[in-house]
Amino acid sequence: MKISRKICSIILLxxxxxxxxxxxxxxxxxxxxxxxxxxxxxxxxxTDKAVFEKKxxxxxLEKKQLSIGLKITNNAIAPLDKPSEIVLVIDNSxxxxxxxxxxxxxxxxxxxxxxxxxxxxxxxxxxxxxxxSFSTGDNEGTITDAKLRIALxxxxxxxxxxxxxxxxxxxxxxxxxxAGITLASQQFTGTxxxxxxxxxxxxxxxxxxxxxxxxxxxxxxxxxxxxxxxxHNDGIQILSMMTGVTNDIxxxxxxxxxxxxxxxxxxxxxxxxxxFYYITDNEIEETVxxxxxxxxxxxxxxxxxxxxxxxxxxxxxxxxxxxxYVTSPNLGxxxxxxxxxxxxxxxxxxxxxxxxxxxxxxKLTLKxxxxxxxxSVVLDTNTKVDITTDKVLNEDGSKKIITSDVTxxxxxxxxxxxxxxxxxxxxxxxxxxxxxxxxxxxxxALVACLVVGIRLYIKxxxxx
Length: 464
Hints:
The structure is a single chain. By secondary structure, the protein is α+β, with helices and mostly antiparallel strands. The chain is built from 9 helices and 21 strands. The protein has a 6-stranded mixed sheet, sandwiched between helices. Strands 3-4-5-16-13 form a 5-stranded antiparallel sheet. Strands 14-15-12-19-20 form a 5-stranded antiparallel sheet, with no helix packed on it. Strand 10 (236-243), helix 6 and strand 11 (275-279) form a beta-alpha-beta unit. The protein is elongated and about 120 Å long.
């Protein structure tokens, strides 16, 4: 008998709790007003040139709607968007006449690729080109080992003629790279901000300025490397392509030609300066007319890649506001809806180029029935924003999380009713919101309690 009474007590308590939660926790949003408490703008400096921004872009307080915009901009300027001077420094030593696997000579492959590169560069109004060749002449080890074929110009025809002239004049015995890059550096004007040297060679330097004997290492290597470093420190960007260099042993030094090249230029992974492309002869066209061109037009250094933007929402926003996108992202892909397990959306962008801006926006609309506990409480529209990209890494090489919890803040209030004449009966007080589910739960509980009560009554009567 005591057990039965306990069961009845538990059922009654459940009914009270259900009633409290259903009838007291929710209310109609019809009589509430939405106001913006803080119109904060979330700004995150992703890199020194890329900025993320999240802010309230539109709202309709009458409809209780908020539109929030997300935007990330790469403010980096592509180098060749500014006036640029480029000197092509082409090796015309005897080894350039060697026949390669493509069927022609190495010089023909380099010259044809240089023409393709020059053609694309001269489509830009900001670019001027100069052509310098180098090998050795009658006075080895002097600046005369290099020859100016054409001064800086934007004339395509003149540049094509100059490259043809170099390809027809492959005659020097040795490779004086220092003379070539030194003469090239003398072509730049003092007013141009962007200065590039593109070195195209098939040999390890074996003579340098101030020497007059063949030497593959030692002074020649030191002089050439020092000249490259000085030009780099002077603000000249250097892109070097070396082809046709083998792993054969050079007799004087006992080192391979590749090892001797690395003494001067470093490796492609860790170049002495700028960019160093160590390639085979069949890669000449791809490297010169595409890889080097892309590095000039849109170098990877300032491009943002594999960007992930995580936008987190408070539970109060998810429970009481409907979410929908206003505009789809113009770049990348975003979650179809809020991930309710993590309370977030994720926006992924593969690449953000020079001057590009990626945007999207979404809308939060107050639901018809809301939790009355959020009334008169200042609500964050978002919890935080986390951003990761390949360009921002921790010391261990993992992606660094860049974060901010700055967000717009809003509040719901119930306006005070206007004062009324006491002699007139007021309008019925609005009832707290009920749902069909709530009514069904209460009904089921009441029926269960009634059934248990009847059975206990019958059992008790039988005992008597």
